[in-house]
């Protein structure tokens, strides 16, 4: 995705100019085949809007999106059908995304029918059974309805449905945040396992860095519609450079983070994207903000830590030098 933006007009009328909601502003991201990219931020940061644009569920206001050289934003007709076969979406709430009147067999069989109409009913049933086995469900589950399953099982049904077309890329919009903490790890592990076995590329949207720590290769942190930091997951966790990322990491319990670190509190609410702060959009909440931050918007630039690690902060070098992480501890 290159320079993607999505603006929504809000509350316009004949006499009042609509406000422009800049949900996603000038975002550029690349995912390599077989890689897992996590897009992280608080709710309202634009990450779901970004994911929906990639799936053409909503249209970008400007910018380009390509998948294996094919331009997603221009695809029509058959090209769009093929893109929808190759790119699939897993929704946050598995219950509301599954039609309650359809059996699991039909829910999973429907995309097979769309994308492989040549299969006989019997071949299709065999394929449904195979998909259910891949996500850890049993063949007899095909005759049941979504309400008969737990949240974790329903998300497994959603994953089987997403796999039915034989996709190369799966985008998960907070795929585990509606689930009990105890089953979140199971579903995350299932996704990582399917990625490795099927050679999938994953884009996982999350508001919680801890959830994606062990499954993602790279992380992009979003704040108010823009990517403020991106880099390799291990590098971001060990050497975060943007104050917002530092604050998000501070919120993760030490037991899950595995080392002690200084606490950088995240104060206040995220400002409305209808009226974003000037300059650096994080300046209203940043403990390191200076006068220049109010007027000059920082751009993503390379950090000193590892290739591909970039942060959008005027002062990250000084902040890192003055606030070194405490020595790592075992744990
Ligand atoms: Fe904070 Fe300024 Fe850096 Fe923005 S540019 S993150 S306000 S120090
Ligand atoms: Mg969301």
Automatic annotation (TrEMBL):
- InterPro entries hit by this protein: AAA+_ATPase, ABC_transp_ATP-bind, ABC_transporter-like_ATP-bd, ABC_transporter-like_CS, Oligopep_ABC_C, P-loop_NTPase
Q: Which residues form the ABC transporter domain?
A: 1-249
Recorded GO terms, molecular function?
ATP binding; ATP hydrolysis activity
Superkingdom: Bacteria
Alphabetical list of Pfam families matching this protein: ABC_tran (PF00005), oligo_HPY (PF08352)
Keyword annotations: ATP-binding, Nucleotide-binding, Transport
Give the membrane topology.
Answer: Peripheral membrane protein
Record's keyword annotation contains Transport: yes
- GO cellular component labels: plasma membrane
What protein name applies here? Peptide/nickel transport system ATP-binding protein/oligopeptide transport system ATP-binding protein
């Amino acid at each position: 995705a290159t320079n993607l933006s999505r603006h929504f007009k809000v509350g316009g009328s004949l006499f009042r100019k609509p406000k422009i909601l800049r949900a996603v502003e000038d975002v550029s991201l690349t995912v390599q085949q077989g890689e897992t990219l996590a897009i992280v931020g608080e709710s309202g940061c634009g990450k779901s809007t970004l994911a929906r644009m990639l799936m053409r569920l909503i249209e970008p206001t400007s910018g380009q999106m390509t998948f294996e050289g094919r331009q997603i934003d221009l695809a029509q007709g058959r090209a769009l059908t093929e893109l929808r076969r190759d790119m699939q979406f897993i929704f946050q709430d598995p219950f509301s995304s599954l039609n309650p009147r359809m059996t699991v067999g039909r829910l999973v069989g429907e995309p097979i029918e769309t994308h492989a109409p040549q299969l006989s009913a019997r071949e299709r049933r065999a394929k449904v059974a195979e998909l259910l086995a891949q996500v850890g469900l049993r063949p007899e589950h095909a005759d049941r309805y979504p309400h008969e399953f737990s949240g974790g099982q329903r998300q497994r049904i959603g994953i089987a449905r997403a796999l039915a077309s034989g996709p190369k890329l799966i985008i998960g919009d907070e795929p585990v945040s509606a689930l009990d903490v105890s089953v979140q790890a199971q579903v995350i592990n299932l996704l990582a396992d399917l990625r490795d076995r099927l050679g999938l590329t994953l884009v996982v949207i999350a508001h919680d860095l801890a959830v994606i720590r062990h499954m993602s290769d790279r992380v992009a942190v979003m704040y108010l519609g823009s990517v403020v930091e991106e880099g390799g997951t291990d590098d971001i966790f060990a050497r975060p450079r943007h104050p917002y990322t530092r604050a998000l990491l501070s919120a993760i319990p030490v037991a899950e983070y595995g080392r002690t670190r200084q606490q950088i509190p995240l104060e206040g609410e995220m400002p409305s994207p209808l009226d974003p702060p000037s300059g650096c959009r994080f300046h209203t909440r940043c403990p390191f903000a200076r006068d220049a931050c109010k007027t000059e918007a920082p751009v993503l630039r390379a950090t000193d830590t590892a290739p591909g690690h970039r942060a959008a902060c005027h002062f990250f070098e000084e902040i890192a030098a003055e606030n070194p992480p405490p020595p790592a501890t075992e744990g």
